[in-house]
TrEMBL record:
GO terms for molecular function: dioxygenase activity. Its cofactor is Fe(2+). Residues 24-313 form the TauD/TfdA-like domain. This is TauD/TfdA family dioxygenase. Keywords: Antibiotic biosynthesis, Dioxygenase, Iron, Oxidoreductase. Gene3D superfamilies: Clavaminate synthase-like. The keyword Transmembrane does not apply. InterPro entries: AlphaKG_dependent_hydroxylases, TauD-like_sf, TauD/TfdA-like. The keyword Cell wall biogenesis/degradation does not apply. It comes from Saccharopolyspora erythraea (Streptomyces erythraeus).
């Protein structure tokens, strides 16, 4: 049987994500709405698809398309970096130094409810770099050493966070409230250990499964942010300063084995090497739309030069409990 997207101009090129050439579309939102079934089918089949030719130019238009494809859109919680909010559920990319990579990760994979579909729109392409790469999380899992996978399946991974005005994101911004009791209730409901410090800062720890199953396909996938949210991705000079000022436990984020044991830089290097071997990339062009299955594919953001305006929306929420987690929550 032919795919519902068989009559569309789809390019499949080695080293690149699936690229759908929409043609010269006058109005992006009506086109996307009319092709919703085909677009979702392409994401199911390829894990990610970049749509070119829509000439997206406004946050409002992107918000409408995102809502039609995967609404209602999710609000972010537990952010690890600042974003600007354009509209309900429509954000800027995470504010991260342009000269540093955002390593491969699955969005909000440290939460109990995360987006099933990530949507990106490029309103302004950088002069160079800035690619949003994607990697097959099932292939990555198969390529990792069996003993490492077994340990993470058995122990899970632990994420430690510090929220304050000096490092990381203030808790008021990350949780969208000025009320400590609201934060405490959220933490209890989401199996997050927490403590307050004397400077109105918040420290948290949460243990999550590093390997899960895709709720639709049943495939086992490497699903976490270990390669990104760890001490070894922080610029060495910045890391040394933060450790000197706040101690080893004062970094804005760090990942450990589920037992709490540190993860060495050799393991992080290995993860990034495996991700690189499986990365598909295509430079952004202004007006592009990209759809990514957040469970089947990890994504990254490469260093760039020049101005880059890529918007993000998250939809199709999925509960961790639906994905055969390997560790039980407390």
């Amino acid at each position: 049987m032919a795919s519902p997207a068989a009559d569309l101009d789809l390019a499949l090129t080695a080293g690149k994500p699936a690229i759908l050439h929409a043609g010269d579309v006058a109005e992006a939102a009506p086109w996307a709405d009319a092709h919703r079934a085909e677009l979702r089918s392409l994401v199911d089949e390829h894990g990610a698809v970049l749509v070119r030719g829509l000439s997206l130019s406004t946050a409002e238009e992107f918000g409408r398309i995102s809502g039609d494809l995967a609404g209602p859109l999710m609000r972010e919680r537990e952010a690890f970096a600042r974003r600007w909010t354009y509209a309900d559920g429509v954000y800027s990319s995470s504010k991260w130094p342009p000269n540093q990579p955002m390593c491969m990760h699955h969005e909000l994979s440290y939460t109990l409810e995360f987006p099933g579909l990530m949507m990106f729109a490029c309103l302004g392409a950088p002069a160079s770099g800035g690619v949003t790469g994607v990697a097959d999380a099932s292939a990555v899992l198969r390529a990792l050493p069996a003993d490492l996978v077994e340990r993470f399946e058995r122990e899970g991974w632990q994420l430690a966070r510090n929220y304050n005005e000096m490092v990381g994101v203030p808790w008021q911004e990350a949780f969208g409230t000025e009320d400590r009791s609201v934060v405490e209730r959220y933490c209890r409901e989401n199996s997050i250990e927490f403590e307050w410090d004397d400077m109105d800062g918040l420290r948290t720890r949460q243990r999550r499964s590093a390997v899960i199953r895709h709720p639709r396909t049943g495939e086992r996938v490497w699903f976490n942010q270990i390669a990104f949210l760890n001490e070894w991705t922080i610029d060495p000079e910045v890391r040394d300063y933060l450790v000197m000022e706040f101690g080893p436990g004062g970094l804005p984020f760090n990942s450990h084995y589920g037992s709490g044991e540190p993860i060495g830089d050799d393991v992080i290097a290995l993860l990034n090497e495996v991700y690189e071997r499986h990365t598909l990339r295509e430079p952004w062009q202004a007006g592009d739309l990209m759809l990514v299955d957040n469970i089947a594919r990890a994504h990254s953001r490469e260093p760039y030069e020049g101005s880059r305006e890529v918007l993000v929306a998250m939809g199709d929420p999925v509960r961790l409990a639906e994905c055969s987690p390997t560790i039980a929550l407390p």
